[in-house]
Specification:
Layout: H1 28-43, E1 51-53, E2 59-62, H2 65-76, H3 82-91, E3 95-96, E4 102-105, H4 132-196
Antiparallel strand pairs: 1-2, 2-4, 3-4
Coiled coil: 142-176
InterPro entries: HSF_DNA-bd (IPR000232), WH-like_DNA-bd_sf (IPR036388), WH_DNA-bd_sf (IPR036390)
Pfam family, one: HSF_DNA-bind
């Protein structure tokens, strides 16, 4: 059974003179996001999922953010920036509901209930407001960078130690080479000296 549409007038009510049956349109961002999910519902059978409604139909999951940014966003929006898309969701009150995947929910954003979209309003907040999950993502990035820097520093220290050891070995071999050359020189000179001594009869 299809849900009732917000655009339909209730039975038994009539329009007063001068009153027009204006329907409240949902924000374009929400309509386009809903359209993406409806289009993807048809495309899922053909291959890998990029984005879809969750199992309950009360939220959606971006399974492949890179593909979503490259393929889906430019088709519906004037950008291909996933972070911008997530910030927009946040301004309309969507919540990220899973820690290991990009799943978002809103009470009024549900499969088969497009008529509820006009009830979703933009949050009144400072432009500087930054979603907690994006902040967490940034923190995770910085933690990862710190970890990588630590590994590189440790590797650098090991390489310096190895270099020092090799330099010491090289110095040792050079000393051995000098000693061998001296020894060889002495052998040659003593051998030559012996040849010059006249033989006594």
């Amino acid at each position: 059974m299809a849900p009732p549409t917000g655009a339909l007038l209730e039975r038994g009510t009539s329009l007063k003179i001068g009153q027009s049956p204006r329907t409240k349109c949902p924000p374009p961002f929400l309509s386009k996001t809903y359209d993406i999910l409806e289009e993807e519902e048809e495309a899922i059978a053909n291959g890998q999922r990029i984005v879809s409604w969750n199992y309950e139909g009360n939220g959606f999951v971006v399974w492949n953010p890179a593909e979503f940014s490259e393929v889906m966003l430019p088709r519906y929006f004037k950008h291909n920036n996933f972070s911008s898309f997530v910030r927009q969701l946040n301004t309309y009150g969507f919540k990220k509901t899973a820690s290991k995947r990009w799943e978002f929910q809103h009470d009024k954003f549900r499969r088969g209930y497009r008529h509820l979209l006009h009830e979703i309003t933009r949050k009144k907040c400072e432009p500087s407001a930054f979603p907690a999950y994006l902040k967490a993502s940034e923190e995770h990035k910085s933690t990862t960078l710190e970890g990588n820097a630590r590994v590189l520093m440790e590797e650098n220290k090991n390489l310096r130690r190895e270099r020092l050891e090799l330099q010491m070995q090289l110095a040792h071999f050079k000393t051995l080479e000098i000693k061998l050359l001296e020894c060889l020189s002495q052998c040659i000179s003593s051998h030559g000296h012996q040849r010059k001594i006249p033989r006594l009869c």
